[in-house]
Amino acid sequence: MILRAGSGWQTVTADLALILFLVTAQASRDTPAVPQQVEPVATAISDSSGAGLAVFRPGPETNLGQWLDMTMTDDRQGASVVVRYPGGQREAAFRDGSALLEQIESKGSTARLVLEPGTRAETLVTIGYEGNPETGTMLAEKR
Hints:
The protein is an alpha+beta fold. The chain is about 30% helix and about 25% strand.
């Protein structure tokens, strides 16, 4: 006579599979459906024409001076400070943009300030080859 235990390997495997399913279901229930997107502080992108463009977003732990030292490697590059502001905050946007212009000028470069009305406040500093208005080129020209 063969004695058989109360459960076989199939039952043990089914129990473990059920436990794994329950643990996975519980873990996936606690994760958000859409991950939070974090905006980069500084990025480098390139458009289809090949002109380089660097973007800086001022923040509490960012340093515009260091970023300019790393990014502005050519005297033909230009900086633009773009400040978007919601309604009624134009004066504050102008003050913030002017402070960034002073920081850029203290590094020996010049920049332009662009104020744009928008739905939310946003500040950017961009570096790129502005082009030569006399020849119409959008890329840096040879010296």
